[in-house]
Design goal:
It comes from Streptomyces poriferorum. Its EC number is 1.6.5.-. This is NAD(P)/FAD-dependent oxidoreductase. The chain is α/β, with parallel strands linked by helices and 465 residues long. The protein folds into 2 domains: 197 residues, FAD/NAD(P)-binding domain; 143 residues, FAD/NAD(P)-binding domain (3-Layer(bba) Sandwich). Helix content is 32%, strand content 22%. The protein has 14 helices and 24 strands. The protein has a 7-stranded mixed β-sheet. Strands 10-17-11-12-13 form a 5-stranded parallel β-sheet. Strand 11, helix 9 and strand 12 form a beta-alpha-beta unit. The chain is globular.
Length: 465
Amino acid sequence: MASDSGGTPPGPPPGVRILVVGGGYVGMYTALRLQRKLKQRLRSGEAEITVVTPDPYMTYQPFLPEAAAGSISPRHVVVPLRRVLAHCTIVVGEARRIDHTKRTATVTTLATAEDGTGAVEIPYDELVLAPGSVSRTLPVPGLAEHGVGFKTIEEAIGLRNHVIEQMDIASATRDPAIRDAALTFVFVGGGYAGVEALAELEDMARYTARYYHNIKAEDLKWILVEATGRILPEVGESMGRYAVRELRGRNIDVRLDTRLESCEDRIAVLSDGSRFPTRTLVWTAGVKPAPLLAHTGLPLNERGRLVCTARLTVEGTEHAWAAGDAAAVPDLTASEPGRETAPNAQHAVRQAKVLADNLVAAIDGRPLKEYRHSYAGSVASLGLHKGVAHVYGRRLKGYPAWLMHRTYHLSRVPTFNRKARVLAEWTLAGLFKREIVSLGSLEHPRAEFEIAAGRHPRPDDGDCQ
């Protein structure tokens, strides 16, 4: 132990333990940069990085709509954390509680229920909270039973399989009511997730319809429900209006200033009095911070996000850091005071870099930097060769915006390996026809074996779940 009598301040304690909670944008990019910055210390044992994440991969969410449409293979939308973070310890599990006074995190893993030993406690010296967000649902009757979100790769691929299966049902049924419900697809939420998912899937389904002898593209009914008076607010009002015209020009029913009142009995009831029997209800009406934040004892704002400083530290708390969807970070570039950075990927990736640099600086006793980034703009896809963009004050639409959307996200997807694979798939997709196969049986892989063994599996009720 260092003596206080000397003039040299004590250095960082050996074996600094860094715990990163979350393996999304902020979690992965922070751990990746820490891994590079602390390379020698990780090798010598002077530092260790543990990443707790519910999934062993990071999902590049902007590619989910293209994965749902079959333009990209699901495995190329995710980044395996064990490969990218080779010098970190990856714990696949859920952080249930943080006791920052004791510097411990209570975590349940895949083995928790199997071995009966209960949750494990992971000690740390520095905490990075990046658990992200979850779907923000409302108490709409029937939503929990019949709705599906669009935040994970599993939901995206399940939705693709489901849409094609509904076309199979509509093609084979003799009941007009079942056919109509099967070919009606309702999306709630006019942000990026809802608009891009609907646009890509409608594009895919319209192409797929040509291979059915009794289904035409105009038989499919696509409905977008948005509670406000505009969609895609990030791209600006004029581009939002263009997106509405583009979607309506494709016979998509866009309902603005409208809410979903109920979806019981597979009937979507809207606030304007409309009723649509449907077997597909996709809920993309916003997100909320991960529930873990309520069990940390750290300061939260009125929306449940961690109150942070511009240095990406948790307000009034030492050795705690946060960024991304879970953090309320002041926007130093905003013209009016009190504004926070938007919870999107553009800020998350840049915040992760500053956070990692500041954490290393704190360990070394150096001053911290403030996060400052002017919002560059937004791009959105409206299906193959169609899009809108508002970047650095310039507005683009149609093919140029779609090309910018692909170019930007190709540049941002992590690792050269993923970039090359995605580019190769786009190239092949331009040379060959779309794949129109549903692999819904992947969701019930034991069904056929159970039938062969004399046991009847639970029948699929047809809901998109």
